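Z., the sequence and structure:
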Amino acid sequence: MAKRFILSIDGGGIRGIIPAAILVELAKRLEGLPLHKAFDMIAGTSTGGIIAAGLTCPHPDDEETAACTPTDLLALYVDHGGKIFEKNPILGLINPFGLNDPRYQPDELENRLKAQLGTAATLDKGLTKVLITAYDIKQRQALFMANTDNENSHFRYWEAARATSAAPTYFPPALIERVGEKNKDKRFVPLIDGGVFANDPILAAYVEARKQKWGNDELVFLSLGTGQQNRPVAYQEAKGWGILGWMQPSHDTPLISILMQGQASTASYQANALLNPPGTKIDYSTVVTKENAASLSYFRLDRQLSSKENDALDDASPENIRALKAIAAQIMKDNAPALDEIAKRILANQ
């Protein structure tokens, strides 16, 4: 029986450092095999969608090579995160609580995406199957930008990456083009972050995989989290919150954080029950051991963040970047058997 490998990457803003660092380590184990050849599908939401785009988009100068290596993507966060999440001091004066305008302008993010992905490549040209989530605020429905079917495969890579990461209150919605669409009403689509419905896109990836002609193949999933939020919401504090309390930017919009984390924890629970042997336990404190790695079809690598890391989507301070890199290193150390097992299976399948 052939095996099909699917990579799924969560949303999480600057915390994309964590899955990017893990993929750098996995790439070392793959002995030079590019990730677009290692995985039959790569799915991502928000920051995970940016990573998925980078790994599957053809390079502007070489259509056989991916636009980004995992090392390139890690550098995108480490070297450019501070500029992407740079607050405009003038806007801070006229809009001190972030109630009227998005916290950040998208110019720096868009410029980086164009530089990394080019401006022309569309999803149908992807080097492997790719799935990037977003939410259509006009049609009020989820949108799966993917080359698994023709309908939603004609979006430019850089625009798909911009749309999936348009987190409400952080960045304005993205208005992106369906290339070649003649119907004016369908040509331009207003989108926000796919994290509003699939911050962990594992189940979306599973459904898309089942839609392919892979019915007799064994499906193996590697799901990478971005660190789970570490700030509990105290009842005594929350009981008095109204709209401003639940959506307060200075508290990193607790409602959005809760909705995204709630979906991610549910999706990982469901995927484990669906894909792994009965009795398999996976939560944020569980690590994959050498003894149970061989029995798994669904690998989830994530960790509850500690007090050393800021769980905010936009803390790109040097101190937090170092802390996020450190927790990624700890996840890799604790889950080395999972990375070994995934790499072994992929190489054996070539």
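The chain has a mean pLDDT of 91. Residues 254-275 form the longest helix (22 residues).

Let me know what you think.
H.
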